[in-house]
């Protein structure tokens, strides 16, 4: 998923770590960023029992 | 229980040295008058003196306080005052848990070496139950790691092979129990920090359901994932500690008949990445359970592949909030690897934390659904055997995995969902312990311990390894 805000945020975070003398933490950040992408791509609207997401009161369409 | 209760020692109890006694067996001897708490405590202190220079299980040893408490326990038991199953039994605490009068270092140079002014709630409960607090155990700094190598007090070393990791973050607690320095130790578990070292060292490790055991007076890593729990040699010992920590009436586990047990295995995700030795031992254990009459079904947890990402985005913001001030004021006092991860924890998007909370609800519902018609889920506790110190990544089935991701893989799901989970020994691979993990229903930790006691008895024939290196 391409997201301009996320891309800008990640660039800023890398630059911040480098500016703070923490270039060694950038590989850790890359790992966290990969995990975040996994999280954003997941379909959190599918409940375990096949119904709607928790808190979603919209009735399931049957047509 | 009356102090004059007659002793019925098991054959092994007659020959085992004092430091090798389980808490339950030691308690039986204390009540029979054939053992004193002072002698037991001195035996444990002698093990610390003899072995801790190599294994580095302890940060602080409270020997004088322990001996005073032991003598008091002996006086009380002799007078017929019985405080329960841990009365007079040495217990160690992970050095993340406050014990009044001793510093709580969290395995770090960040915290001052000043004594804690008061006990954590769990410490107070242990004291009230007559436990003998023998010392504070070493850990991965601030519980933020699974190897117990990154600590200001020297890497914890495995009880069977000092060149290997004991797991973590409660690594010192696992070594203390495995080497007979205390029959029970109390650890903490945010992503597996009780169960990982227990599995690596051939012990029983219990994470009760979320919220059952209070964390007040315990240095937090992530408040929504943190749990306190015991490490012990047997399910019965862990159950005794659990009852005290959760302030329940003492109740030894009652194993149900094997033929009545229904367990669910999780081939998808949870059995996909296992070392050949762990897979072989796990398969043997499942075969033994089936032969004993246990019914084992296949179930699944939707969204399992997203578990590591959900975990990270629940844990990291909370860790960052706790450490933000000291990361600014004294960053050089952290060990480098822990510092790097904590600093990056500050760079998280709030919307990702919200997604992780959505994921947490889904995963919790998924585990509930998988458990619906079962007594417990069954899976390995740790996908690999104890690994050499300094290992950063290993190959499993041709794929490279970081040690951190691999060690957390099978335990962190149940910190996210809050279900009770227990690991127990299930044989060895290349001489190193392999474990099973059982996951129970919310609100039913005692029943999970009953199931664990049944499984423990059945898989003992796999080649039970209590991890002791005498």
Explain this structure to me?
The complex is a heterodimer of chains A (63) and B (470). Chain A is mostly helical. In chain A, 51% of the residues lie in helices and 0% in strands. Chain A is built from two helices and no strands. Chain A has helices at residues 4-19, 26-41. Chain A is elongated and about 40 Å long. Chain A starts with a helix and ends in a 22-residue tail after the last helix. Chain B is α/β, with parallel strands linked by helices and 470 residues long. Chain B has helices spanning 11-15, 23-32, 37-55, 63-78, 121-128, 171-178, 195-201, 235-245, 276-291, 307-329, 336-345, 350-371, 403-408, 412-417, 445-459, and strands at 58-61, 90-94, 132-137, 184-188, 204-207, 228-232, 262-265, 295-298, 376-380, 393-396, 399-402, 421-429, 432-439. Chain B has an eleven-stranded mixed β-sheet, with helices on both faces. Chain B has a two-stranded antiparallel ribbon with strand order 10-11. In chain B, helix 5 links the parallel strand 2 and strand 3 (132-137). Mean pLDDT of chain B is 94; it is low at 1-14 and 463-470. The interface between A and B is medium-sized, with 24 and 30 residues.
Topology diagram in text:
The complex is a heterodimer of chains A (63) and B (470).
Chain A: H1 4-19, H2 26-41
Chain B: H1 11-15, H2 23-32, H3 37-55, E1 58-61, H4 63-78, E2 90-94, H5 121-128, E3 132-137, H6 171-178, E4 184-188, H7 195-201, E5 204-207, E6 228-232, H8 235-245, E7 262-265, H9 276-291, E8 295-298, H10 307-329, H11 336-345, H12 350-371, E9 376-380, E10 393-396, E11 399-402, H13 403-408, H14 412-417, E12 421-429, E13 432-439, H15 445-459
């Amino acid at each position: 998923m391409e997201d301009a805000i996320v891309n800008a945020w990640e660039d800023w975070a890398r630059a911040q770590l480098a500016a703070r003398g923490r270039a060694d933490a950038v590989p850790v950040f890359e790992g966290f960023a990969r995990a975040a992408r996994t999280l954003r791509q997941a379909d959190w609207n599918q409940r375990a029992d096949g119904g709607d997401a928790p808190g979603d009161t919209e009735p399931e369409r049957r047509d | 229980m009356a102090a004059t209760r007659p002793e019925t020692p098991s054959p092994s109890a007659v020959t085992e040295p004092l430091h090798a006694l389980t808490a339950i067996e030691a308690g039986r001897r204390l009540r029979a008058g054939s053992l004193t708490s002072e002698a037991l405590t001195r035996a444990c202190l002698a093990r610390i003196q003899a072995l801790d220079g190599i294994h580095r299980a302890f940060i602080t040893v409270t020997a004088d306080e322990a001996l005073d408490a032991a003598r008091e326990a002996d006086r009380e038991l002799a007078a017929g005052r019985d405080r329960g199953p841990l009365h007079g039994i040495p217990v160690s605490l992970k050095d993340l848990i406050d014990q009044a009068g001793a510093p709580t270092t969290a395995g770090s140079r960040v915290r001052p070496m000043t004594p804690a002014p008061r006990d954590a709630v769990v410490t107070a409960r242990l004291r009230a139950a007559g436990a003998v607090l023998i010392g504070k155990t070493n850990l991965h700094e601030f519980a933020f790691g699974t190897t117990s190598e990154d600590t200001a007090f020297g890497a914890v070393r495995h009880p069977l092979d000092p060149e290997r990791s004991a797991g973590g973050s409660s690594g010192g607690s696992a070594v203390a129990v495995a080497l007979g320095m205390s029959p029970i130790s109390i650890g903490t578990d945010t992503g597996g920090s009780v169960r990982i070292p227990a599995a690596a060292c051939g012990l029983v490790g219990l994470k009760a359901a979320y919220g059952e055991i209070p964390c007040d007076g315990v240095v937090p890593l992530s408040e929504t994932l943190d749990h306190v729990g015991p490490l012990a040699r047997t399910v019965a010992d862990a159950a005794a500690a659990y009852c005290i920590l959760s302030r329940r009436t003492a109740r030894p586990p009652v194993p149900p008949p094997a033929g009545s047990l229904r367990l669910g295995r999780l081939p998808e995700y949870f059995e996909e990445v296992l070392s050949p030795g762990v897979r072989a031992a796990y398969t043997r254990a499942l075969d033994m359970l089936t032969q004993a009459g246990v019914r084992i079904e296949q179930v699944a947890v939707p969204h399992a592949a997203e578990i590591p990402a959900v975990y990270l985005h629940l844990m990291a913001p909370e860790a960052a909030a706790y450490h933000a001030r000291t990361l600014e004021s004294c960053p050089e006092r952290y060990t480098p690897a822990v510092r790097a991860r904590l600093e990056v924890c500050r760079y998280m998007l709030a919307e990702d934390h919200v997604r992780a909370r959505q994921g947490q609800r889904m995963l919790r519902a998924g585990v509930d659904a998988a458990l619906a018609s079962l007594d417990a889920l069954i899976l390995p506790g740790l996908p690999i055997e104890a690994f050499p110190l300094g290992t950063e990544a290993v190959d499993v089935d041709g794929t490279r995995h970081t040690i951190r991701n691999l060690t957390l893989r099978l335990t962190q799901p149940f910190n996210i969902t809050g279900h009770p989970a227990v690991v127990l020994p299930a044989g060895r691979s290349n001489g190193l312990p392999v474990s099973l993990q059982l996951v129970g229903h919310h609100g039913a930790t005692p029943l999970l311990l009953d199931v664990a006691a049944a499984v423990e008895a059945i898989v003992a024939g796999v080649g039970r390894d209590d991890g002791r290196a005498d």
